[in-house]
Predict the structure.
Amino acid sequence: MNELLKHFAGRIPDGGAFAVARRALLLRSRNGVGLDVALGALPFEERVVQRSSLFAYPPDVSLRTCSAEDLVVMKSFAGRGQDWVDVERIIVRQTGRLDWNYIRAQLRPLAELKEAPEILTELERRRREFEQ
């Protein structure tokens, strides 16, 4: 976490304390792009890291990024307005390439944990609407 704060500005005051409490470090790139870094602990989050890949971020930083499927799961689980917009964009951009069986298998237990089965229904509705 401290290494990332050396390279990126925090988006909120006392971002380190927020990150520890919420398990998410909120950063901003030099050109103003918001970056959310998840600090994982659940088995699903461990799988996210195993499935991740490195992305070279200029000028000289490599960031580990999650797969599109895992991002759909995380955004659907969060379920805020902007998260659903992001899910729609991922569906459009990744049409024909998303592993929907994997997404459902990962999201189902998280939705049950949250006692929010409607998350799966909403994701399927958006898939039907935005998948080309």
